[in-house]
């Protein structure tokens, strides 16, 4: 009976105390206050969404409002590398990263207006649709991709074989809609060849992207060319937009026997140093890294590591200039945030970005070389081969 009376008296007192403290959150302990404020912010957001859904002059989807508001929040960061994936876009992105996808057969470069077409592969859906290098893709399925990251935009273009995608393509001042049927397009991650200059030979290894397992293919190609008598190696990272950080470390380790490759650090991420994993080819083998303005992210890590460690001569033009890395965090609605969480630093300590998420000057080549796409010879590759042979004498 006494316990019952105590509960009867205590419950109203706790209720009154809760109401009073709710009106005076500054008196609460920090963690409790933060939780209360967070709940208050969520309440205001839900209130605004409910008003829009109830009173706006035309019907709107609550899910669509949520997607657009989250996308707007990420865009307000003014960070070209961060992105919000809606549940559908994230599912498409997962298919792409897991290899369960097909595409239209082209490589692209991110711009403020969308995606610029760089390469169109023969007999691909893009080729059959009349797309050419230099064309600008400004919308996918009627939705503008201006300001979206290349990862988000390409995830919209890729999909299951046999499905269709509509691209709004700008050529000069003219725009047209192109409907393409996605297909499995086999684009080799690693391509290799033997370049010859007189009696001397140089191995040429082109890496298209730092996907899972790419280092194994690069290593196999490099060692095969050396067994075939190559006097040196040109590692071609032109138009390589990056990929997995661990693959960048492993590719660097093919040429660097030991020591630092790259380090990363973020506001909520402790510093982490990545070192060579061992098993490198002999350091007596001369190496050149061939790059251009589309060589970015993981490509810049490899290029910068080999340059800083004086293991290779960098040939080409300035690289992209990305000095930050992102992580994907899934949300309860099935979408995800792909946000910048830190910066990476080359062995010398330099960051090749422009400070934070700003695009920087990139890596300056040791030897400048540019390929003229209108001519049959690859002038930049020829220069890289000459550099390797000169180093080897």
Please sum up the structure shown.
With 393 residues, the chain is of the alpha+beta class. Helix content is 33%, strand content 25%.
Give a quick set of tags describing it.
393 residues; alpha+beta; Pdz3 Domain; 2-enoyl-CoA Hydratase, Chain A, domain 1; 6-stranded antiparallel β-sheet; 6-stranded mixed β-sheet; 10 helices; 17 strands; globular
Structural account:
With 393 residues, the protein is an alpha+beta fold. It folds into three domains: 2-60, no CATH class; 101-181, Pdz3 Domain (Roll), CATH 2.30.42; 190-391, 2-enoyl-CoA Hydratase, Chain A, domain 1 (Alpha-Beta Complex), CATH 3.90.226. The protein is 33% helix and 25% strand. The chain has helices at residues 2-22, 30-55, 62-75, 87-97, 125-128, 150-157, 214-227, 245-252, 298-308, 379-391, and strands spanning 83-85, 106-110, 115-120, 136-140, 143-144, 164-171, 174-181, 190-197, 200-207, 233-236, 260-266, 269-275, 287-291, 313-316, 324-330, 336-345, 367-368. Strands 2, 3, 4, 5, 6 and 7 form a six-stranded antiparallel beta sheet that branches. It has a six-stranded mixed beta sheet with strand order 8-9-10-13-14-17, sandwiched between helices. Strand 2 and strand 3 form a beta hairpin. Helix 4 (87-97) packs across helix 6 (150-157), helix 7 (214-227) runs parallel beside helix 8 (245-252) and helix 8 packs parallel to helix 9. The radius of gyration is 27 Å and the shape is globular. The N and C termini lie far apart (100 Å).
